[in-house]
Amino acid sequence: MEKEGRRRAMGSGEMAMGDALTTRIAAAMTSAQSGGHATAAAEIEAIRAELGGVPSYQLAAAEYVRGVTAHHASDADEALKAVDACVAVAKAIDEPGWEANALPIRIINLARSGRGGDTVKDLVTAEHALNRTKDAGLSAWAHTGLGYAYDVLRLYELCIPHYEHATQLDADVFELAESRAIDRLNLAETYLRWAHELERIGDPSYRQEIQERLASAAYWARAAERVIVDDESQEFWRLSARLWIAAAATIEDPAAAVAELTECRDEISKLGETERLAIAGVYLARALQAAGKYDEARAAADRAAADLIPLADPATHVLVLQTRSEIAAAAGEQGALTGLEYARSVARGWWKERQRALNAVRHALASHDLSARHDAEWHAARQDPLTGIGNRRALDERLTAARDSGRAVTVLAIDVDDLKVVNDTYGHASGDELLQVVANLLVEQARATDAVIRSGGDEFIVVLDQPDAKGGARLALRIRTAAAAIATAATKPWLGRLGLSIGYAATAEGVGVDQLIATADRRLYEDKRRRRWGDRGL
């Protein structure tokens, strides 16, 4: 399957177009999905070694492709290790989009290897991470990955919307030529799976729904054909589209399907994509059966069973095995009808279990949505809308918590020099940009455990939790150095004026929590006066 191999959009600028390393990661992704997983694995290992384990957008991409590669190589242990590594990098660089992409690989590999795992928790976490990412390409690819996870779990009603959403998104940093085709091929394959699961139940009341699913499969496969790039490197995807179109027509036009599926199976066998080879073989068996060629159909089904890989999707295993049972029953083999009826009773039970799982996941997602909205409202009430950092309410709560717990804290008060001059000279939009630059600067220089606050107007506060004795002084120096670097390199005149006045106070020097801000403010204005006198040479 090509579910997880969609496009990737630029995140923080680390994966700029044309970057040689990014190009290699993208090439490994394409290779992994089109039969070259051994080559891809070697390349990704080399890339990871070059990156040296330092968390970055590119390392997250490399770990993700490592997981995709291991998945295609049926190496669940390696895939799970890659997922853990990708999630760790995602948290380190604060990019939830990578977590949203990695977790579906874990869900899929645990399901396919029969290990279980907390699937519902992973689904909810991945959906939440998808909602939090602002990276358009990571969002697009996560829709594809989650669609794939839901497809493997047979939760088609949750799968289809993700895939359809993915077809509407165009963000792409990897520049994969196959990007647009992949999402459409995914939809074609999922509709086929859905149709065949309904067929296995053996209930005539599903006949109309089955026909609708098959028609949708053919529609999306043809849609994929129309967007496949005319290039030799895209033959795998063109072959996939042909496979799904023929698979949807095994009953409607069995003779044409037999000819097309025979050719598809022969071409797939040259690529080494064994799961896809089994799928092509079982559809060929179905077409041969529909054409009344039972001996050939039985031989094709037996070959498909032999081509199954250990970690093939459970639905693929069932499709192969039940097709063999149906062919045996149609040929009048002794005991085959009894076996087929037993298989259908199992399919009906499996379908009921699927319905229970669907309801459970829907309930978990709905509950999480309420919780997520509550969290969003809570954070919004404590966030400065211009800069995205904390506001006065967040500051009051942080200091109250410090006072109640008796923890040591240091407060830095920071004032943006000449903001009024910038507003009057260049306009308030320029002043707003200056404030946003300062907010980003403070977040970059502070620790993750520190609180960065815009207390109002041109003043910011940083609360250092449990600092060492020199923590305030060191942070003030880092902030001054970073501000000077921005001003020196600036091409915009309002950023070239960037200057900060800073004062700090700490409970370690005997100042009470309630007096920290007043003390830091007084020292800030002393700093401002000193700097102004110094600027005049006095």
Lay out the secondary structure:
Blueprint lengths: L19 H14 L3 H15 L5 H16 L3 H17 L3 H17 L6 H14 L3 H17 L3 H12 L11 H23 L5 H21 L7 H13 L6 H16 L4 H17 L3 H14 L6 H17 L5 H45 L11 H14 L3 E8 L2 H8 L1 H18 L5 E6 L2 E7 L5 H19 L3 H4 L3 E7 L9 H20 L3
Antiparallel strand pairs: 1-3, 1-4, 2-3
Radius of gyration over all CA atoms, rounded: 30 Å
Number of strands: 4
Oligomeric status: single chain
Strand order of the largest sheet: 2-3-1-4
Alpha plus pi helix count: 22
Roughly what percent helix?
A: 55-70%
Profile the largest sheet.
4 strands, antiparallel
Order of helices and strands: HHHHHHHHHHHHHHHHHEHHEEHHEH
Q: What fraction of residues sit in β-strands?
A: 5-15%
Any idea what the shape is? elongated
Helical/strand content category = mainly alpha
Mean pLDDT: 86
Distance between the termini: 73 Å
Characterise this structure.
A four-stranded antiparallel β-sheet has the order 2-3-1-4, with helices on both faces. Helix 1 packs antiparallel against helix 2 (37-51) and helix 13 (274-290) packs antiparallel against helix 14 (294-307). The radius of gyration is 30 Å and the shape is elongated. A hairpin with a 2-residue loop joins strand 2 (451-456) and strand 3. With 538 residues, it is mainly alpha-helical. The model is unreliable at 1-18 (pLDDT under 50). It contains 22 helices and four strands.
Summarize the structure.
The protein contains 22 helices and four strands.
